[in-house]
Amino acid sequence: MHDDDYWMQQALLLAAKAESLGEVPVGALIVIDDEVVAEGYNNPITTHDPTSHAEIEAIRAAGESLKNYRLCGATLYVTLEPCVMCAGAIIHARIDRLVYGASDPKAGAAGSIFDLLPPDHRFNHKLEVTPGVMSQQCSAQLSNFFKRRRAEKKAKPKPKPKPKPKTLPTQQASRNS
Ligand SMILES: [Zn+2]
Questions:
Q1: Residue 54 Cα, ligand 1 centroid: separation in angstroms?
Q2: Which of 85, 123, 127, 125 is nearest to 104 (CA)?
Q3: Which residues lie across from 39 on neighbouring strands?
Q4: Distance, CA 109 to ligand 1 centroid (Å)?
């Protein structure tokens, strides 16, 4: 059996794939019985699809490969705490266990901003959550990406300001005629 660190390492590689496409680096994979059944990475800009988060991509691929819309017995590994949308999808997919790396203080729905995945019986389905696996590597990958992007933005020359449109003469004259 592989441990959580091993699978999170794979998720980090998937996140790097997203980064190579200019996307925010987040990677996810779904494991059942110590085998990967699906992978995903953040890809909304390239696909023009705001729902193309790593978790959604992995859940869709897992459903397709298992020919089942319920992913019972599955563990979802993701490098960043899921957002509201992905937390919803995790519940709908009946994922058994969620393991994530970095916390997301801006959009996290597993306790940071919202707590949509509480370890109780508010939903019929019970989900086990393990936060903070390889959190330093996961956070570093994200913060390095944003640092680099800010530096690239700064280095770009600013576009020249557009000339102001000429104001049209008022039509007051016609009123007096
Ligand atoms: Zn999400």
A1: 7
A2: 85
A3: 29
A4: 9
Task: Tell me whether residue 152 is one of the annotated catalytic residues.
Answer: no
Among residues 23, 39, 55, 57, the one annotated as catalytic is 55
CB atoms inside a 10 Å sphere around CB 15: 28
Ligand 1 midpoint to CA 48 (Å): 15
Q: What are phi and psi of 138, to 5 degrees?
A: -65, -45
Residues in the chain: 177
Q: How far is the CA of 96 from the centre of ligand 1 (A)?
A: 18
Q: Is the pLDDT of residue 118 over 90?
A: no
Which residue(s) pair with 97 in the sheet?
A: 75, 128
In the block, residue with structure tokens 């058994």: 96
* Lookup result for tokens 């008022």: 170
Q: Is the pLDDT of residue 171 over 70?
A: no
C-alpha torsion angle, residues 117, 67, 59, 133 (rounded to 10): 70
pTM of the model: 0.86
* Backbone region of residue 150 per phi and psi (left: phi > 0; alpha: psi in -120 to 50; beta: other values): alpha
Candidates 41, 16, 39; CA nearest to 29 is 39
Helices (H) and strands (E) in the chain, counts: 6, 5
Q: Residue 99: beta bridge partners? A: 77, 130
Would you say residue 169 has pLDDT above 70? Answer: no
